[in-house]
Structures are given as C-alpha cells and as structure tokens.
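At this stage, I needed to go through a protein sequence along with its fold in token form, as given directly below:
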Amino acid sequence: MVISYARPVFGFPPVFQNIVTGDVLGISIPILITLFVAFIFYLITIKTVLGQNLYIIGGNLEVSWLSGVNVKIHKLVAFMFSGIASGIGGVVMIGRLGAAEPLAGNGLSYLQSHR
C-alpha cells in the first residue's frame, strides 16, 4: 500500500488475463488451480509427518508440545501454507479482474480467529 499509495494497479498483459480466464475441457482454469492446490495440500497433510503433526497441533496445542512436536516450527509452516494459498488466490483474482486492488480484503478481519 505504501508503494501504490493504496490505489489500484492495472495494465497487466492481456496474455496473463487470457490464461487465468480461459478453460480446459470446459472447466474454468481458476477451478483447476483450486483443485490442484487443494490436492497438493491434501497430500501434504495426509501423507507426511508434517501433516500429521499439524493435525495434532490443531487438536490440542499443549498435548502436542508435551508429546515432542516442535509447535513453533509447525505453526510457522501452517502460516506459510496459508500465505502460499492466499498468494495464489491473489494472482487468480488479479487475472480475473485485470487489476490489483490493495484494499480488496479490507474489512474482512472478522474472519480471523482471535484466541
């Protein structure tokens, strides 16, 4: 927001917009991107020790710490996954809208969990 002074950024190449707004076999590319990302995160959470530890931490933070799980690192990784997913969503949104709006998520802080 500092760089753009909270103004929308536009003028992205039409090729970028065409890629994101296209379809493959009648299925929209943003849906395919969502399915691909969800599948990768599914594999990570189901098939790896990291994913099992994330489930344990989500169940009970103190018990997972007492059982030897490095909670700080796993919470960092969970936030990294969240950042990657939101970044991919932002790129898809830019492609669909043709502009980047820095205040697009303003007012959505009620969705955050406050513990």
